[in-house]
Design goal:
Elements: H1 2-29, E1 37-44, E2 54-55, E3 58-64, E4 70-79, E5 85-96, E6 100-106, E7 109-110, E8 117-122, E9 128-133, E10 151-155, E11 168-171, E12 187-190, H2 198-210, E13 213-216, E14 240-243, E15 246-250, H3 260-275, H4 304-313, H5 322-345, H6 351-375, E16 383-393, E17 397-408, E18 412-417, E19 421-426, E20 436-439, E21 445-450, E22 454-465, E23 471-478, E24 484-491, E25 501-506, E26 509-518, E27 521-532, H7 537-542, H8 545-550, H9 559-574, H10 580-585, E28 592-600, E29 608-609, E30 614-626, H11 629-636
Parallel strand pairs: 5-20, 10-11, 10-12, 12-13, 13-15, 16-30
Antiparallel strand pairs: 1-3, 2-7, 3-6, 4-5, 4-8, 8-9, 14-15, 16-17, 17-22, 18-21, 18-29, 19-22, 20-21, 23-24, 24-27, 25-26, 25-28, 26-27, 28-30
Helix pairs in contact: 4-9, 5-6
Length: 637
């Protein structure tokens, strides 16, 4: 008994020593990888995570606590509740000097406002990780359910601990260097001139030009701010003015004395002043109320972008021979029972062995048949289908959001990229792991392994070069009850000659436009046809995930029918109208009109890829135009 006990204790000691030697070997073999990284601080979005369905800047303060430099590729992965990875990893190269730290920025896609699990991976085969979670919905004294705007004060990191009144502070050095990462930002408050490089200055002005709101405050000495280079346009000496679609408002109060009530009052006064130049009724506060994704609306389930990707994937899909598949399924069930039972009754000896052998052979044969039938197609061809929303920017650029579906007949590893700056890819995936990798930013690209006769859906954001398309409002007339009675727009020669759809939105009504030629110039004039925006509520309901899946096997739409459906969905997406409640309460700014131009996908905005197939799609160009003051003055006479 003593000998056996001593032997057991000796084996246990050897086992523990072996484990210690193994860990020591790992530290010796991979000294720069094991526990090389620590995450000191995490900032999601712009410090207020009201960003469902958007790519947001994720700022990580990483530190290297080892005596050796860290120079490796790192990955950011989304985790399910079980800890498994979903979607495609976001990758970037990072260098950290010994015992140093620096901010590293990713641009993940947020699906839910709730808590999400993520991991940062590095090392051989990315086996080392640090896990962290998104902070879910953030509530502070700057945001309420009725006012879910992301409103921040940009400040230097050395001033973050100072009192900022009623508003959230955000480090100015973490402002994204590309406008494509600013979708979750609504308003900015500035009381100093930021110390930015050229890329961040351009990114900020692009964000403002697209429709952001900037509140300018005097510096601590009471002097107006003086901007230079690409931001010099902000020096206009007016109480409020426009930069593209963006609004700039000056405030006399300092940052310590500015309250949310004062800020909202100045915004309302600016909108009222803009509206006062028009012959119409006095505007209400509806004109500046944001369209938000209310969590109290029980209609929507899932992600709106994933919904759009699902619709696009229906344009090209495997056309399996379902008759053969169903017939083989019935035959397989019959062979299992009563086939195996009848075969067993005919056996005289070794019946159970022969029955098992028969069952295994049938399973192998039918598995092979199902595999052959299921993997092959019936006349399909490799193709890429895309839809985009494009907002014109300055200097022959446009801000693009693109949804894509790549269907291939030959399985391989494929690469996707595009021409432009600040590209951000995402698979918008919350259930399936994607074999591939995403590199965002400069020369961004997406790698994906796509099996034969299957597809990969993804979306991306980019600032792309595109010839400027100018629109000028020549004349308009607003009648009783804020009805747009007439409108004439002059176009630059760069516009497509035959758009597929052409509408202008004013108030809550979509007006049809027709194209005419007048004295060697192209004009759009108001057509008699008009559509209340609420008429599209039935479209919103019938095109939900549940409705489409119910008729998936019963009805197959032609590609032009799907693209027409996508036009309505893209317009609603542009207006941030996802739920019927939002649609019923929507009210546009009555001092401006929105023009929607739907046309074939231009060659300049197509993907660069090694997928050998045709690319087709549609582009929705959106123009936010002010109604000029002088026209109203003429009509008032």
């Amino acid at each position: 008994m003593n000998f056996r006990s001593n032997k057991t204790n000796f084996a246990a000691r050897n086992y523990r020593q072996l484990i210690m030697v193994g860990w020591a070997g790992m530290f010796l073999l991979f000294p720069s990888c094991v526990f090389a990284l620590d995450i000191e601080e995490v900032i999601w979005g712009f410090g207020t995570q009201q960003a469902r369905g958007k790519c947001v800047p994720l700022s990580l303060l990483l530190s290297n606590n080892t005596p050796e430099g860290f120079d490796e590729l790192i990955q950011l992965n989304r985790l399910q509740f079980s800890g498994s990875i979903v979607g495609a990893p976001l990758c970037r190269k990072v260098y950290l000097a010994p015992y140093s730290s620096q901010w590293v920025q990713f641009y993940p896609y947020l699906i839910d406002k709730g808590r999400e699990e993520w991991s940062l991976n590095w090392g051989p085969r990315f086996i080392y990780s640090r896990k962290f979670a998104s902070n879910g919905s953030v509530s502070d004294n700057n945001q309420t359910d009725e006012d879910p705007l992301t409103r921040i004060i940009l400040t230097s990191s050395t001033s973050l601990t100072q009192s900022g009144g009623a508003f959230k502070r955000y480090p100015e050095e973490l402002f994204p260097p590309a406008v494509t990462a600013t979708d979750s930002l609504d308003e900015v408050i500035l009381d100093h001139v930021p110390r930015w490089d050229a890329a961040r200055k351009v990114s900020f002005m692009d964000w403002l030009f697209k429709g952001g709101t900037l509140h300018l405050l005097p510096d601590p000495s009471g002097t107006d701010l003086n901007f230079t280079t690409s931001m010099a346009e902000l020096n206009i000496p007016q109480d409020h003015f426009r930069v593209g679609s963006g609004l700039v408002i000056r405030h006399p109060a300092t940052i310590q004395k500015l309250t949310k009530k004062q800020l909202v009052a100045r915004m309302l006064a600016a909108h009222t002043d803009e509206f006062s130049t028009m012959a119409a009724t006095t505007p209400s506060t509806e004109n500046i109320q944001p369209t938000t994704q209310s969590e109290n609306d029980s209609y929507s389930f899932g992600d709106a972008n994933a919904d759009l990707l699902q619709i696009i994937s229906e344009i090209t899909r495997p056309d399996h021979n379902w008759t053969i598949i169903y017939a083989m399924s019935v035959l397989y069930i019959f062979i299992i029972f009563p086939g195996c039972y009848l075969f067993n009754k005919r056996q005289k000896s070794y019946h159970y062995r022969n029955s098992l052998l028969f069952l295994l052979i049938m399973v192998a044969v039918f598995s092979t048949v199902f595999w052959r039938i299921g993997k092959r197609g019936y006349g399909e061809t490799t193709a890429i289908n895309s839809v985009i929303i494009a907002h014109p920017l300055k200097d022959d650029q446009c801000d693009v959001t693109c949804w894509n579906n790549a269907f291939v007949t030959d399985g391989a590893k494929y690469q996707f990229s595009s021409s432009g700056d600040g590209i951000i890819f995402t698979t918008a995936q919350e259930a399936e792991k994607v074999k591939g990798a995403i590199f965002n930013g400069v020369e961004g690209r997406f790698y994906s392994d796509i099996p034969p006769f299957s597809s990969r859906s993804f979306m991306y954001r980019i600032k792309a070069p595109f010839k400027n398309q100018n629109i000028k409002v020549l004349e308009y007339k607003i009648g009783a009850n804020s009805i747009l009675e007439s409108l004439k727009l002059e176009l630059s020669p760069a516009f497509p000659k035959n758009p597929l759809n052409l509408h202008v939105l004013y108030g809550r009504t979509l007006y049809h436009l027709s194209q005419t030629q007048e004295n060697d110039r192209t004009c759009w004039t108001l057509h008699k046809a008009r559509t209340p925006l609420t008429a599209w509520q039935s479209t919103m309901e019938s095109d939900s995930n549940f409705a489409r899946r119910a008729v998936y096997l019963e009805e197959e739409k032609e590609s032009h029918e799907i693209y027409e459906l996508l036009y309505r969905r893209l317009v609603l997406k542009e207006l941030n109208l996802i739920r019927p409640g939002q649609l019923r309460n929507y009210q546009s700014d009555k001092a401006r009109v929105k023009v929607f131009l739907y046309t074939a996908l231009p060659e300049e905005l197509k993907l660069k890829t090694n997928v050998q197939g045709a690319q087709q799609g549609r582009a929705l160009f959106v123009y936010d135009l002010p109604l000029p003051e002088q026209k109203n003055a003429t009509e008032n006479e």
